[in-house]
Amino acid sequence: QVQLVESGGGLVQTGESLRLSCTASGTFISINAMGWYRQAPGKQRELVATLPSGSSTNYADSVKGRFTISRDNANNTVYLQMNSLKPEDTAVYFCNVGFQIRRGGVIYSSWGRGTQVTVSS
What we know:
mainly beta; four-stranded antiparallel beta sheet; 0% helix
């Protein structure tokens, strides 16, 4: 299994920046993909950005050009650099990873507990 520890959330004003980080630990053979999702009150959880293993990044249209996802494979950490934040970005942000516990085995999914990002107008 994998445990995810997130950090970097907080309260900022419109136009400011935050960097979220998520570090994975536990028993696993490999981390295949890492990503960020968010959920605002009364809204469905939505994809923000993903970084599939060995592939290019994917972003929600609403964050393209403002957010950047990156990965530190040596430390099993994924980052989300959020620039030009808007009130619409206010949500709980969740880290997600896909991982394997055996080579050639199924891919499991693990979620962080979430970190609050609040952007004031």
